[in-house]
Structures are given as structure tokens and as C-alpha cells.
Amino acid sequence: MSAFPGVKALVFDTFGTVVDWRNGIARDAKVFLARHGRADIDPHGFADAWRKRYQPAMEAVRSGRRPFTRLDVLHRENLDALLGEYGITAEEAELDWLNRAWHRLDPWPDAIPGLLRMRPRHFLAPLSNGNILLLANMAKRAGIPWDAILGAEAAQAYKPQPEAYTRTAEILGLAPGEVALVAAHNGDLAAARRAGLKTAFVLRPTEHGPDQTTDTRAEQDWEAVASSFEALADQLGC
Amino acid sequence: MSAFPGVKALVFDTFGTVVDWRNGIARDAKVFLARHGRADIDPHGFADAWRKRYQPAMEAVRSGRRPFTRLDVLHRENLDALLGEYGITAEEAELDWLNRAWHRLDPWPDAIPGLLRMRPRHFLAPLSNGNILLLANMAKRAGIPWDAILGAEAAQAYKPQPEAYTRTAEILGLAPGEVALVAAHNGDLAAARRAGLKTAFVLRPTEHGPDQTTDTRAEQDWEAVASSFEALADQLGC
To answer: Do the Cβ atoms of A133 and B72 come within 8 Å?
Structure first.
């Protein structure tokens, strides 16, 4: 018996939920930093510092202070600012390569096996703040079996704005309650629930490293709570 | 040597170029018409009559007389009008099933083998007037290996408006000249070329049935001209 009666599409938060952004960014930052003689900078600290600028950058869009701007652009502005703080200058091609580290993130080991089990019975798409190209390049490189690339750019709104969820359901030709969001973040799920979607929490206890203190447990009675995508597939009867 | 030096993404017209819409619609129309005791109506004629309303419906959007409206909605309005002419009434579920015949079209036999050869070296996406759900359901059912679902809904503009082409390139993070449109229609290719894209004509001599008189040859010096997706893959060196 499925945990989600009536749900036809599963949409997924991506950074942290499907892919391990912190180790992926650190891997490529390490190469970049070594090339610039800055092995003194911890690559994981670099990843955290870059990611720390993520919410404020999107907030400028969510608040209406700037028009919708895709995440590749925000990531690049944030990178330029971060490198300025470190006093590092680099060529355009190298900056573009590092910015696209977000396109080269690896999935958690259970993600693709779980998605492949869910796919025959559900429509699968990311509902991420990543832009279409970022998510599509990531999927192409890693073999993530999405049926379409959805998310902020298709909806022209950043989570947790309600339009990010409701427009995604509309693109899918579904009522919000026929769509379930899978995410490792209680805040994202809370916003999805307010917009009418079903919710599944998947625990990612090391997204932020070994000492993670946030999102270490389900904070509401989400329709499903699982320790991996494979465990979620079990609950869905897939 | 590739026919497209510098081209990183291949985008594809879909109805007629990738899939055989006429036989697909006729197949499901035949079932519907028989159920309603109207075997007197030729299913291929029904498909042609439904398709005939396609350009005028999009023209209402292109001209600005109505806001961007996805193709599933236009198809359904056109179906309702067509059935009204035939004096046929049906239940909502049945109308929705028939309207989604556009989601269940089969690719031409060479399409998927050709795409699978092109995919390792190119980013592949539809650039169709079909909406995201339509194209994604079609791909899921038939196994079409797109990297992302692009087109009118992502660009919020219907071909041959220039924005349909230029916004698609922008989503891909590419200059227009780094994108090539593959299409069986000279008019589509001409608009893509005016927008700065590269162009490939693939001949589909029976899209409109055995007596087709349009698009039976390349009408400009398109960068590539091929008789099938496999022949195009040859020209691309894939």
C-alpha cells in the first residue's frame, strides 16, 4: 500500500536531498585553490562560505528587489564576491568552470537506485531552486532519471514562495494534492504542505558535514519519513 | 568532421519531426469514434481536421490577443469545437483521454536510434510548441532520451516567434549560434536561422499522409539536410 494514495508525481528538492553538494563543491574547489597556491583554505569551508550566500541572493528575487534571475547567475555573483574576500583573481574560463561545479554534483548512493524503482509508477522531476541547465547537466552527467526538469526557472519563483510549488503542479496538469515533494529540509516541506502538496522527509544527516545540527529529524507529521530513497521506494510500494 | 562546428545543443521540432502525429492521433480517434458509433468518420481526416485548428489557436497567443496558454488547453478547445461540428458529445474523462492522444504519439522508427547516437556529444531537447507535460509524457512512454524538456512553455512563446528560439538558447546558457534546430519544416528552420540558430532539415515525406506536397525538400541551404535521424547522426560524426 502506498504512503501516497492519489499522488501521481514526485518532485524532489535536489541540493542536499538528491546530491551531496558540500563534498562536490569541495572537490572542485580544492583543485581551484591548489592551482592558485591557496592550499591554506579548507575546501569544505570554501563550499560552506559559497553556500552561505545562497539564501540572501535568492531573497533579493523573492522580495521583488530584482527580477527572476537564474541560479547560475546568482552562484557566479556569489563566487566573485567570495573570491574577492580571499583576494583571489582568475581567468573567466576558470571561473566558469568552478561555477559549474554545481552542475557536477554526485548523487547520494541511494538516490538513483531509489528513483529507478519509483519511476515506472510516478512522474519524477526535480523541484529545485537550481536552473534548468544546471539540473539537466547534473542529470546527464550522473544518470539521474528525471522525466522533466522542473523547479524555480520553470515556475519563475524561488522556494519557499508558494508559486514555486503551485506552478509546478500546474505545469504537471495536476492538483497540488496529487504531487508530493521529497526533501531533506523541514522548511521546504512546510512550505510545500501550505501550498497543498503531499510531503516526504528523507534524512540526510551529513549534508552539512559530520557535525550537522539542522534537519536531523522530521519536525512535522510528514506523509512519509524515510532514511533513504530506497526506503522511500519501499514505503511507496515500488 | 561535424556538420555543426561549435554547436553544443541540438533542439528538435517534435510533431512531425520526431513523432508521427497523424497516425498516432488517427489510432486513438478511431477507438473514440467507434465507441460513439461514428465509424463513418475517417480517423485520418479527423486527425487532419484537429491539426488544422492548431496554427490559428497559437496565432491568438502570438498576436497578443490572449496570454500564453499551454498547448494541452488549446488542443482541448480545438477538440471541443471539432466534436461540436460532428455533433458528438462525450464524458469529461473520455475527452481528456482523447486530448492526451498527443502525449501518446510514436516516434518515427529512426528517431530514437539517431538520438541515442547524438546524445553522448550533444545536449538534446525538444524545441516544440507542445507543453512540458505533453512532451515529458511522450518521452516517458516512448523512451525518447531528452536531457531536458524545453520549448514554448519554457520560453513562454510559440514558434515561429523569435523569442521561442532565443530564450531556449538563453536557458541553455548558449549563444544562438551554438544551438542547432532539427526540423522537418522549412518555415520553422527559416525562423530559427533568423534568430541566429544553426539548422538541420530532416525529410518527413509522409507526415501529412501519402499525398504530401509541403516540405518535400530543403528550400534553403540549411547547414545539414538528411533523410533520417540516423543519417543526421552520420553527418554529425556521431
So the answer is: no
- B-proximal residues of A, 152-211, CB under 8 Å: 153-154, 171-173
The answer to whether the bond into B160 is cis (omega within 30° of 0) is yes
Please state the rounded mean pLDDT for residues B11-40.
98
Which residue is closest to A120 within chain B, CA to CA? B140
Question: What is the layout of strands, in order, in the sheet containing B224-226?
Answer: B150-151, B123-128, B9-12, B179-183, B198-202, B224-226
Q: In this complex, is the C-beta atom of B112 within 8 Å of any C-beta atom belonging to chain A?
A: no
Please give the CATH topology (third level) of the domain spanning A21-103: DNA polymerase; domain 1 (1.10.150)
CA distance linking residue B204 with residue B202, whole number of Å: 6
Residue of B nearest to A138 (CA): B147
pLDDT of residue A91: 97
Mutation to test the B interface, candidates A70, A132, A137, most B Cβ within 10 Å: A132
Q: What is the CATH superfamily name and number for domain B9-20+105-235? A: HAD superfamily/HAD-like (3.40.50.1000)
Is A72 within 8 Å of B173 when comparing Cβ atoms? yes
Mean pLDDT of A164-193: 98
- A79 pLDDT tier (thresholds 50, 70, 90): very high
Q: How far apart are CA B220 and CA B199, in angstroms?
A: 10
Report the residue of chain B nearest A100, measured CA to CA: B173
Reported ipTM: 0.94
Residue A96 touches chain B, beta carbons under 8 Å: no
Boundaries of CATH 3.40.50.1000 in chain B?
9-20+105-235
Instruction: State the DSSP H helix or E strand holding residue B180, giving kind and residue range, or none if neither.
Output: strand B179-183
Q: Which residues contact B56 (CB under 8 A, 6 or more apart)?
A: none
Is A9-20+107-235 assigned to CATH 2.40.30.10? no
Q: Is A116 on the interface with B (CB under 8 A)?
A: no
In this prediction, residue A3 carries a pLDDT of: 77
